[in-house]
Amino acid sequence: MSNAAPLLQVRNLRVEFPTRRGTLVALDDVSFEIAPGEVLGVVGESGAGKSMTGAAIIGLLEPPGRIAGGQILLDGRRIDNLRYEEMRRIRGKEIGAIFQDPLTTLNPLYTVGRQLAETMTTHLPIGPAEARRRAIEWLELVGIPAAAQRIDSYPHEFSGGMRQRVVIALALCAEPRLIVADEPTTALDVSIQAQVIALLKRLAREKGTAMMLVTHDMGVIAETADRVAVMYAGRIVEIGPVREVVKHANHPYSAGLMASIPPLDRRVERLAQIDGAMPRLSAIPEGCAYNPRCPQVFEKCRRQRPELMDAATTRAACWLFDTETDRE
Amino acid sequence: MFAFILSRILQALPVMFTVALISFAMFAYVGDPVAIMLGQDYTQAQRDALVAELGLDQPFWVQFATFVVNAAQGEFGLSYRLSRPVAELIAERAPATLELAFTAAGIALLVGVPMGVYTGLYRNSWLSRFFLTFSLVGVSLPTFLIGILLILVFAVWLGWLPSFGRGDTVRIGFWTTGFLTVSGLKALILPAITLGLFQLTLIMRLVRAEMLEVLRTDYIKFARARGLPNRVVHFGHALKNTLVPVITMVGLQLGAIIAFAIVTETVFQWPGMGLLFIQSVGAADIPVMSAYLLLIALVFVTINLIVDLLYYAVDPRLRIGRGKGGH
C-alpha cells in the first residue's frame, strides 16, 4: 500500500434504495482509500455493488438510491454531502468517469471535437480556439489517426474501440486526478480490449492520475491494478495488493473467484466454480453474506458479520482470520 | 443536398397528380355546373354555348389535361357562387389563414416545448402534475367548445378581446396582415389559442415522453459525469435528441392546422380559407373546393419536404453519402 496521503477516502459508505417493500441496502460499510496515481481494481459478480460504488463517488447515483451513511473525501474534503452545483464542478474537473459502452456514451448529435471542447471550456479557463487546439491534441494522445480531420466527425463515424478512445480523452481532458472507470473494456472486442487498457494505463501513469477500475475481468485487473478490492453483496470482502489477492486470496470467496479463472499453462478437466448464486439485496443472510456458499463455514459465520481484519498479506472480512474466534 | 431536394420534389409529383385527378373527378362528376351557372330559365342553345365555352364537350382526358395545365399556372376558373376567379379568392383569404395557423403553431411550440422539458425534468413537482392534467383537457375538449368558452370568458364576460373577425388589417402588396394593428393582434389571440391548444398539449406530452427517454441514456449520464452545467445537459444535449420526433409531429400538425382551421374559423368568423371552403361546400362551389384540395395537398407536400430537410440538419446520422473515411 502506498504511504502518500490518500487522494480518495471512502469511509463506511452505505447506499440505500427505498422501495415499496422496505429499504434495500445496496452498499454496506464500504471503506477504502486510493493514493495519488494508484490504480485500485474493484472486482466481483454482477450486482455486488461495484458500479454503485463508482456512481456514489461521482455523485450520480440513480434515484431513488441515496447515500445513507458514511463519508467520501477527496483530498480530505468531504464530497458526499455537496450540493449538486458544487459537485458538478468536481465532476470532470477532479474526478473523471469512463462508462462501459462507448456506443452509447457519446452524444450522437454533436461532433467529438465539440464534446471535447465543451468539457474543457466548462472546467478550464480557456477559450474556444484553445479548446479546439487541445481537443486535437487529446485525440492524437489517445491514438486517433488524422486527429485534425477527425475532430469534426460525429461519433457514429468511429468504430467501437475508437469511440472508447474518445471517451477516455473526454474523461481525461480536464486533467482530473481520479478516474472512475466502470467496465471500460467489457463492451469491446477482445483484440481491442488490450489496446484500450494499455492506453488507459499509459495515460494514467503519464498524467499521474489515480484510477478506480471496476471490472469483472481478472486479466485486466492483474495487468493494470496496484491493489484489488473484492466485493460481494454490497460489501468489500477482501482488499490488498494485486499479486497477493490474485495468487493467495485469503477470503474463501476471493479464493473461489480466483480459482475460477482458467489457467493458460495447463488443461483442466473442470473449471472451479462457486456453487449457488449471490443473494438478492432483499434476502441477504444473517452473519456473513457468503456463509451459505462458503466451503469453510462454521457456526459464528451464521450469527455475526465479520469486519475487514488483517489476514496475512491482505485484509479480509472473514472469521477465519480472527485470532480470538474459537472455530468450534 | 440539391439532388436530395430534387428527388423529394420528384417524389411529390405523383402525389400532386393523384390529388389533381381526384379533385378534377369531383369537378367533373359532382353536380352539374352548367345548371348551377344558368339558373332556372335557359334555352338549349344557351346551355350548349356554355358547355362549349367551359370545354365540357371534350373527352375526359382532354378536360383533365386542360385542368392540370391551368392548375399548374394557378388558374382554377370562376367560382360559381361569387363569379370571381378562384385564384383571386384564395389569394385574398390565404393570408388570414396562414397568419392564424403560424401564430397558433408558434404558441404551441413556444409554450409546449418548455412545458414538455419542464415536466420531463421535474416529473413529480406539483406544477408538472398541473400541466399534465391541463394537457388532458386540451387533448380531450373539442375545438369548437374551447373557442366558445374563450369567447364567453374573454369577449362576453371580461370584454377584453373581440369575439369575431380579424380586426383592422394592413395591405402589403398582395398580402393583408393583421400583425401590424392593435385590433388585428387582439383579434388574433383567441382564435390562435383555440387552434393551437390541442397542438400545444400534444407537443408538451411528446416532448415530455421523449425527454424521459433521453434522460435515461448513457450519453446524458456521461454529460453529467463530465460536469457540464444542467442548462447545457438539458437544453443542449437532451432536448436536441428529442427533436426528430418532435419535428415530425409539428410538421404534420402544422399541415393539419392550416387544412383544418375550418372549425376555428367558423367559430370566430375568421375570414380565411377554411371559412371560404365551408361556404363553398354549402353552395356546391366545386372550383373553389377542388382548388382548396390541391392547395392543401401542396401545403402537406411542402411541409414534408421541409421536415425532411430539418431531419438532415438535426441528425448527422441521416446524412447519408457524406462519408468521411472509414473506421
From TrEMBL, chain A:
Membrane as UniProt keyword:
yes
ABC transporter domain residues: 8-258
GO BP: peptide transport; transmembrane transport
According to its record, how does it sit in the membrane?
A: Peripheral membrane protein
Q: What is its main location?
A: membrane
Instruction: Supply the alphabetized keyword list.
Output: ATP-binding, Cell membrane, Membrane, Nucleotide-binding, Transport
Has the keyword Hydrolase been applied to this entry? no
GO molecular-function terms, A-Z: ATP binding; ATP hydrolysis activity
GO cellular component assignments: plasma membrane
Q: Where does this one sit in the cell?
A: Cell inner membrane
The protein's superkingdom reads Bacteria
Q: Which family does it belong to?
A: Belongs to the ABC transporter superfamily.
Q: What is this protein identified as? A: Peptide/nickel transport system ATP-binding protein
What organism does the UniProt record list as the source?
Neoroseomonas alkaliterrae
From TrEMBL, chain B:
Q: Which residues form the ABC transmembrane type-1 domain?
A: 94-311
CDD domains from the UniProt entry: TM_PBP2
Family designation: Belongs to the binding-protein-dependent transport system permease family.
Q: Which UniProt keywords apply?
A: Cell membrane, Membrane, Transmembrane, Transmembrane helix, Transport
The protein in question is named: Peptide/nickel transport system permease protein
GO cellular component, alphabetical, reads: plasma membrane
What Gene3D superfamilies does the record point to?
MetI-like
Q: What is its main location?
A: membrane
Q: How does it sit in the membrane?
A: Multi-pass membrane protein
Cross-referenced PROSITE patterns: ABC_TM1
Q: What GO biological process term is on the record, naming one?
A: transmembrane transport
Signal peptide range equals none
Location in or out of the cell: Cell membrane
- Bilayer-crossing regions: 12-30, 100-118, 130-160, 172-198, 243-263, 291-314
